[in-house]
Inverse folding.
């Protein structure tokens, strides 16, 4: 039945053209799905985990008590949640390190304004809500309730990464030598990002400005009183921060017991934070000079209020300011492009904005030149987007090298470029199935769970391995046809017979792959691979059963050299050869 | 028994050689056994290890501003770091008093030598450091040691009046024992409060008695020296040993320390300061745990929210801190590289159980807040189960196509391929993790082909008219031989498509590495199995219809 159907197609040029046309149309349509946003791309999809972390950062000059207020609020807010088992709160330090914390600088946290809360959830198999949905729901709620308590607070929700961790989903690095300008622009950029739909947890990684007091020693007075600046330093430090002056070894403990000296809590506290409050407090502090005279500290120093000096951040030898943002459920690609367009629009007032030329994984970057001063800034997109682009570029490279390697191998085997071309075309066409499969799954996933299904790096891996699978079908067909032809069967008939005979094992392996990948498709990370394999191998089967025979019929190289009756073999199939050439080949 | 068949290629040759060999059966059994052993013994992880090399250099110059640090320390150091090969990014932060340089190597750079190069470069340039610089600290990353596999939160049970120092003393002993567990690399405590003598000086009294802070510090130092023992020879040629005792034995000694004379009468430390034996009050790092009691969190005090009302008394509207969240100490346990997190986590939990009585005595409760071992084990077991199910489904679906005996051959051949691949992975020091198993799931779809194609061809040829008169052995060899070349090429083609994936760079490349490492191996093995064991199993299991 299949045999006569194929034979029928091969008999008519028009039918062959229809088959080729249909395949080309399907290929175009499937590739068009990407720009049409019917298939959305993302490096790795979210994964439901049993834990997530909340990072709390208050303003740079906040005390640990203020930070504690915020964490208490967050914890109390989260206590209403059913799915939470327990929460660990770490003040003034990072939580025990995990993969996310490793790249987000969790280990370096040691300031009073930093805190982390680890939220352990009930087991994911028994919890109806996926952790990323929970974060999506809780994030605005918690930020609204607790974000205002201490000015300058950011509350970030950190999910366990499903693959390699990055600093943040979207990272904007703003390079520039002028601190003031960079700071100003960074705030502007952050404001734009806050307006962008799909972005959350926007934070500028910089210190806040606050007033700082400088104690300026009066050199002359210090020298004349027989004191030293070091002494002033030491005494002030001991009085307000405290110093371990001695230690005592202990017989029954693992640690030495330090002896710590500091002013008592009541006398240490300064009432307000104005200059006068500070002077009043320090006026009671006295220093003793070598002559045993007590000299009031106030007499030998002056006080000056100055703005604080924020830390300078640098990357690869250039000063920069970093703005980070997370993506709320959506892929990072689309908000990034949107926010970039908005940035170009908004920054145009003050800057000459130019796009970085050329195609590279930095292709989204913007060069900014201030219209008045001519100062230059570089706005660079980094983070998961950069990693994704790098990965897709590398996988694309892997794909192309795979194609070339396969092509060469088959050329060696068949000694024919045309046949290799057929095998390669057949392999490549599985992309039709991959893309349509993603579109269908996306529809189903949106309908069932409300979450998008993305084209991911694992989908690409699936596509690469599919090439091999579909190449195998084509190879078997070609081999079998060739051996039939050498047994003296006419070319078109031979192709039809081989399709009919080989259909069973081809369909069988397809079924095996589909079933083998069915469980893969349910995994959040490897879902893309599963879907790619299932739909890709379906497409590959259809292609190798109907399209490959048409191509085979059009290629003269299918006839093995040993065939005596080349004329019969070639039949009418070799359209592009004229009579003379056929005679040449014939013995 | 000689098979009367001349093979045309390697496929037929292999099939012929092993078809009647008594060793074949032994090999089947031992391959399956080796695979099973590998599955049980191989270290398990949830995600594969990503080789991240890099480190942090911290340089302190007390009393300097960020700009100064940037100019005198960070810029020259960054240039020097650039001289190291393999460095991808240099991040630095210039803060008040301290500069931090973070060095990040390309992913996949060898860790030990990278660390060494970094340390070497810093030490070589010590002479260029500005004056007043303190000894730089070089801290290399070490994912294995830095990321704990188990964390346990200890908290006082019941009454809240247990001091954090007491809790610390109990935990400190367990920490020592935990470190003794095999393959445990590092244990740390977080949120701990260490015992300390606190001398809290009253500033008003200080000025009242005309004493300076420096005097007090000197007085304390004067009596608390820890000195080694002294030995001296005696007249009889022996030695006599004596030592000076630290004058501070307990809190009383400190309280009764005379710091100065005022109007002829001594001033004791206790007169001007509160001296107590407490915890390190200067350490603001704290840890708490909020947990459920009888399924309920303590909800915290109700409080009203004044939207953006920062001008007046917000603090009054706030709840009391941590109404019911207990102070806790977290013990973290990390493992050595390449060791099995599953067994370590089990050992840690066992150790905790052993201590349970001791905890009850001290009224200490604990929660295991992180257990990567258990997670890894669950993930691996779930995927192994998936593999089994997949093989089962495939063999079921083959029954209507080929018949149950043929399908049985496939369902023995596939586990054999997986078993040998797993064993090879074990031999090459890989771990068994989610990605490895996904590589296996992926390869099932690919390797099953080889088995199916051989068995299908045997099945097909067996029923052909021309072979009715032939010996079954010959039919099998010929069938295997026939599909040999194209199967070879097809399998090599698939292997070739997988190989370039090994060169994908970055974290993602490392993360996915088990796929290009294992899938080609599985495919190569599948060829061997298809030519050697499938014909053998076909001969043993398939009954030829009719007689010959």
């Amino acid at each position: 039945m299949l045999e006569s159907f194929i034979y029928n197609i091969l008999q008519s040029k028009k039918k062959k053209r229809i088959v080729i046309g249909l395949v080309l149309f399907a290929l175009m349509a499937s590739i068009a799905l990407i720009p049409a946003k019917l298939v959305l791309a993302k490096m790795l999809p979210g994964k439901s985990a049993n834990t997530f972390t909340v990072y709390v950062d208050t303003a740079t000059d906040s005390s640990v008590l203020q930070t504690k207020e915020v964490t208490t609020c967050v914890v109390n807010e989260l206590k209403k949640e059913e799915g939470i088992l327990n929460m660990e709160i770490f003040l003034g330090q990072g939580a025990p390190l995990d993969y996310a914390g490793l790249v987000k600088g969790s280990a370096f946290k040691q300031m009073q304004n930093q805190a982390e809360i680890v939220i352990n959830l009930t087991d994911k198999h028994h919890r109806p809500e996926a952790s990323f949905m929970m974060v999506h729901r809780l994030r605005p709620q918690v930020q609204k309730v607790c974000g205002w308590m201490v000015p300058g607070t950011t509350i970030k929700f950190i999910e366990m990464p499903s693959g390699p961790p990055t600093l943040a989903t979207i990272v904007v690095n703003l390079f520039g030598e002028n601190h003031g300008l960079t700071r100003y622009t960074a705030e502007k950029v952050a404001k734009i990002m806050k307006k962008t739909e799909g972005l959350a947890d926007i934070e500028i990684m910089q210190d806040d400005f606050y007033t700082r007091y400088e104690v300026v020693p009066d050199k002359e007075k210090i020298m004349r009183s027989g004191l030293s600046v070091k002494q002033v330093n030491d005494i002030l430090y001991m009085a307000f921060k405290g110093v371990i002056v001695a230690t005592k070894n202990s017989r029954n403990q693992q640690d030495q017991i330090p002896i710590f000296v500091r002013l008592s809590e009541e006398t240490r506290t300064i009432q307000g934070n104005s200059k006068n409050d500070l002077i009043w407090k320090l006026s009671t502090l006295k220093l003793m000079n070598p002559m045993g005279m007590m000299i009031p500290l106030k007499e030998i120093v002056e006080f000056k209020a100055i703005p604080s000096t924020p830390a300078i951040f640098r990357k690869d030898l250039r000063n920069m300011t970093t703005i980070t943002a997370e993506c709320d459920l959506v892929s990072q690609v689309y908000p990034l492009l949107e926010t970039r367009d908005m940035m170009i629009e908004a920054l145009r007032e003050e800057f000459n904005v130019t796009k970085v030329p050329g195609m590279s994984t930095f292709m989204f970057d913007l060069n900014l030149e201030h219209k008045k001063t001519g100062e230059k800034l570089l706005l660079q997109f980094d983070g998961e987007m950069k990693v994704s682009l790098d990965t897709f570029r590398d996988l694309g490279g892997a794909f192309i090298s795979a194609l070339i390697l396969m092509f060469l191998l088959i050329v060696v085997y068949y000694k024919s470029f045309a046949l290799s071309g057929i095998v390669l075309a057949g392999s490549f066409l599985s992309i039709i199935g991959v893309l349509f499969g993603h579109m269908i799954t996306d529809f189903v996933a949106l309908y069932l769970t409300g979450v998008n299904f993305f084209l991911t790096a694992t989908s690409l891996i699936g596509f690469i391995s599919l090439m091999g699978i579909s190449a195998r079908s084509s190879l078997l067909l070609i081999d079998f046809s060739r051996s039939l032809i050498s047994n003296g069967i006419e070319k078109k008939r031979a192709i039809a017979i081989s399709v009919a005979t080989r259909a069973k094992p081809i369909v069988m392996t397809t079924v095996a792959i589909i079933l083998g990948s069915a469980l893969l498709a349910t995994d959040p990370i490897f879902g893309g691979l599963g879907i790619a394999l299932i739909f890709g191998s379906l497409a590959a089967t259809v292609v190798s059963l109907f399209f490959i025979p048409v191509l085979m019929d059009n290629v003269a190289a299918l006839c093995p050299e040993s065939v005596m009756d080349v004329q019969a073999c070639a039949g009418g199939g070799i359209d592009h050869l004229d009579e003379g050439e056929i005679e040449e080949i014939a013995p | 028994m000689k098979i009367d068949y001349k093979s045309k290629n390697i496929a037929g040759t292999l099939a012929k050689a092993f078809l009647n060999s008594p060793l074949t059966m032994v090999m089947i059994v031992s391959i399956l056994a080796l695979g099973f052993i590998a599955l049980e013994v191989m270290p398990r992880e949830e995600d594969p290890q990503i080789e991240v090399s890099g480190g942090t250099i911290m340089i302190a110059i007390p009393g300097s501003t960020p700009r100064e640090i940037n100019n005198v320390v960070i810029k020259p150091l960054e240039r020097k770091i650039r001289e190291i090969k393999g460095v991808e990014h240099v991040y630095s932060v210039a803060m008040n008093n301290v500069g931090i340089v973070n060095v990040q190597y390309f992913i996949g750079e060898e860790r030990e030598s990278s660390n060494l190069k970094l340390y070497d470069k810093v030490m070589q340039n010590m002479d260029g450091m500005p004056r007043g610089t303190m000894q730089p600290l070089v801290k290399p990353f070490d994912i294995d040691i830095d990321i704990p596999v188990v964390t346990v939160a200890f908290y006082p049970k019941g009454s809240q009046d247990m001091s954090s120092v007491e809790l610390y003393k109990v935990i400190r002993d367990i920490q020592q024992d935990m470190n003794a567990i095999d393959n445990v690399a590092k244990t740390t405590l977080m949120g701990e409060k260490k015992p300390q003598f606190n001398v809290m000086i009253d500033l008003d009294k200080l000025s009242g008695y005309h004493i300076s802070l420096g005097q007090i510090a000197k007085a304390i130092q004067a009596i608390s020296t820890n000195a080694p023992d002294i030995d001296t020879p005696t007249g009889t040629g022996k030695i006599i040993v004596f030592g000076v005792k630290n004058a501070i034995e307990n809190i009383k000694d400190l309280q009764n320390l005379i710091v100065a004379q005022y109007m002829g009468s001594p001033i004791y430390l206790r007169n001007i300061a509160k001296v107590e034996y407490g915890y390190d009050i200067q350490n603001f790092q704290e840890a708490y745990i909020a947990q459920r009691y009888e399924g309920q969190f303590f909800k915290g005090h109700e409080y009203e929210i004044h939207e953006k009302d920062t001008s007046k008394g917000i603090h009054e509207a706030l709840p009391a801190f941590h109404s019911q969240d207990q102070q806790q100490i977290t013990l973290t346990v990390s493992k050595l590289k390449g060791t099995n997190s599953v067994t370590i986590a089990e050992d840690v939990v066992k150790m905790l159980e052993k201590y349970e009585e001791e905890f009850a005595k001290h009224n200490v409760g604990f929660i295991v807040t992180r257990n990567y071992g258990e997670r890894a084990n669950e993930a691996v077991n779930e995927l192994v189960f998936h593999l089994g199910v997949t093989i089962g489904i495939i063999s079921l679906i083959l029954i209507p196509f080929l018949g149950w005996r043929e399908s049985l051959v496939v369902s023995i051949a596939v586990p054999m391929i997986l078993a040998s691949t797993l064993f090879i992975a074990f031999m090459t020091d890989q771990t068994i993790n989610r990605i490895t198993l996904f590589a296996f799931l992926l390869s099932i779809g690919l390797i099953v082909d080889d088995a199916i194609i051989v068995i299908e061809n045997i099945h097909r040829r067996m029923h052909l008219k021309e072979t009715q008169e032939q010996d079954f052995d010959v039919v099998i060899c010929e069938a295997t031989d026939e599909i040999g070349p194209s199967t070879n090429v097809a399998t090599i083609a698939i292997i070739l498509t997988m190989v370039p994936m090994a060169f994908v760079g970055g974290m993602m490349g490392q993360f996915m590495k088990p796929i290009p490492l294992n899938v080609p191996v599985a495919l190569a093995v599948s060829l061997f199995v298809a030519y050697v064991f499938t014909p053998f199993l076909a001969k043993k299991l398939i009954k030829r219809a009719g007689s010959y």
About this structure: Chain B touches chain A through 150 residues (CB under 8 Å).
